[in-house]
Design brief:
6 helices, Rossmann fold, seven-stranded mixed sheet, alpha/beta
Length: 191
């Protein structure tokens, strides 16, 4: 599977400070059960959850190169758009580092890495449909761990979760010169 495009640029999101923050935040909160990493990318977060917990981990990604890369890391993979193919009540935890960089339409490019980076004009283009559906695939006591940035407007993301019948609380954060990254724990409101 081709992992670079014709320009020699990578086609799979490589682990960075956001990936490490998300992995570190979830490792002591997941011990077992069925776990899905949406947008698995390189497989870094899923591989850490798989190797450092007792969870049964599956990853999904829209990018075929990312699926191949994560599969090479030993992760069970489903090529999909977000949570579309998964059955209701099938996961104890869902982990997602979505594309969150606000990107004006005239600055977007049609590229596999674009899917891993661009969150549309407000940074929430992918977060909206994800939050609208993640409650469906979570078991009643399931948790979702979502990484967001101040560039994406964390309060707007919390409001999207609430609109979807979910509750969100901040469990980890790290500050950088240009943004603050936050991991939100998201649950069904009735739990």
């Amino acid at each position: 599977m081709k992992l670079a495009d014709e320009r020699g640029m990578t086609t799979v999101y490589e682990p960075a400070e956001d990936s490490r923050l998300l992995a570190d935040a979830v490792l002591d909160r997941i011990d077992g059960g069925r776990v899905l990493e949406v947008g698995v990318g390189s497989g870094y977060v899923a591989a850490r959850v798989d190797s450092e917990t007792h969870a049964d981990v599956v990853g999904c990604d829209i990018n075929p190169a990312a699926c191949a890369r994560a599969k090479g890391e030993g992760i069970e993979i489903v090529r999909s758009n977000l949570t579309d193919p998964f059955a209701a009540d099938s996961f104890d935890a869902v982990v997602f580092n979505p594309p969150y960089l606000p990107t004006p339409p005239d600055e977007e490019w049609d590229d596999p890495l674009e899917y891993a980076l661009s969150g549309g004009e407000d940074g929430r283009r992918v977060v909206r449909p994800f939050l609208a559906d993640v409650g469906r695939i979570l078991r009643p006591t399931g948790r979702c761990y979502l990484l967001v940035s101040t560039l994406t407007d964390i309060e707007a993301v919390v409001e999207l979760a609430e609109t979807a019948g979910l509750a969100a609380e901040q469990i980890a954060e790290e500050s950088f010169p240009f943004e603050r990254l936050v991991v939100l724990k998201i649950t069904q409101k009735n739990t």
